[in-house]
Amino acid sequence: MTHTFYIAMSYAVAAVVILCLIAWTWLDGRARQKELAELEASGIRRRSAQPTGDAA
């Protein structure tokens, strides 16, 4: 194994790991957004959301 090959493979492995983490985070975010949309559609609201219909 040459030094150049070792360095190139190290960069390649690091790039693959980083891309996997980015994809995982993106897909998980989409799943959480879908879950939130389903909860809001069923009438469950966030505690931080302003109540509708209340006179302030």
> Roughly what is the average pLDDT, rounded to an integer?
88
Number of strands: 0
As a whole number of angstroms, the C-alpha radius of gyration is 22 Å
Structural class given helices, strands, pairing? mainly alpha
User: Strand fraction band?
Assistant: under 5%
**Order of SSEs:** H
What quaternary form is this? single chain
- Assign a percent range to the helix content: 55-70%
Largest sheet: none
Note poorly predicted spans. none
Total of DSSP H or I helical runs spanning 4+ residues: 1
Our measurement of the CA-to-CA distance between the termini, rounded to an integer number of angstroms, reads: 72 Å
Overall spatial form: rod-shaped
Number of domains: 1
Please sum up the structure shown.
It is found in: Cell inner membrane. The chain is mostly helical and 56 residues long. It contains one helix and no strands.
Question: What features would you describe in this structure?
Answer:
This protein is mostly helical. The protein has one domain. Helices cover 70% and strands 0% of the residues. The chain contains one helix and no strands. It is rod-shaped and about 70 Å long. The termini are far apart. The model has no long low-confidence stretch (mean pLDDT 88). It holds the Pfam family CcmD. Belongs to the CcmD/CycX/HelD family. Keywords: Cell inner membrane, Cell membrane, Cytochrome c-type biogenesis, Membrane, Transmembrane, Transmembrane helix, Transport.
